[in-house]
Amino acid sequence: MTSVVVTEGLTKRYGRRPALADCTLDIPAGHVVGLVGPNGAGKSTLLQLICGLLRPSAGRLSVLGGEPASGSARLGFVAQDTPVYSGLSVEEHLRFGAHLNPSWDDQLAHERVDRLGLDPKQKAGKLSGGQRAQLALTVAIAKRPDLLLLDEPVAALDPLARREFLQGLMEYVAESGTSVVMSSHLVADLERVCDYLIVLVRSRVRVAGEVEELLATHHRLTGPRIDPEALGPGRAVVHARHTDVQSTLVVRSSAPIEDPAFSVDGIDLEDLVLAYMSEAAESGRDRVLEKQR
């Protein structure tokens, strides 16, 4: 299988409000995919559509070569609130997981619990936030899924707990080769673990691709003030900032940019994400102002 998720024009509306609009993606297998964007961008909606918890309003969606199915043993899902049952012990979570999933790897689950130092008799409601997140991840990966979906799994954790969670995730991915899609607005965390990026802003996909390729084809240009349209063909301006005399542009170009009027620098993942988020936000403000005129 070359793709774990394929969407074409995928849309989810609540009344007239789109939570996800005209989403077209082809997510290749074997990657750790970072799904990034501001709150309300549509990240959770996309993940819930993929795992079959929501039905699309329009468009096409294929997951692991077929229709999405809620509760599929081939999918592991950790929702934003790291869903564990406060009244069940750690061991009871593992027994529950084994009962529901025919592909359950009991050895993996118990080895992770031992390595994490979790007390099997401890109620989940008494665990720390980081421990609950680790328990939720353990239950998800012990299914041995082909695709693991994580919705803001570390958003509420302290820096040490975040690092431990991500380290455990990457150890599992290295061992299993499982494809992962993880949403977050914490770009620094994604930078550590992701090799594929999707940026969602205002319910729409702004850019998607392998991180290495995206960083190689995006550049920051600084020089005398210029109309972005004057850069010529093959150079897509993602974001522009101007003073009276100077322009700073983030440009996407597959060919080298050699212009003596500009200094040309590479950008990091955070710069790239912010450029697309800023471009979308400013376009939205422009549309609002146009309607008010």
UniProtKB/TrEMBL annotation:
ABC transporter domain span: 5-227
Pfam families: ABC_tran (PF00005)
Native organism taxonomy: Bacteria, Bacillati, Actinomycetota, Actinomycetes, Micromonosporales
Record has DNA repair as a keyword: no
Name recorded for this polypeptide: ABC transporter ATP-binding protein
GO MF term set: ATP binding
SMART domains in the cross-refs: AAA
Keywords: ATP-binding, Nucleotide-binding, Transport
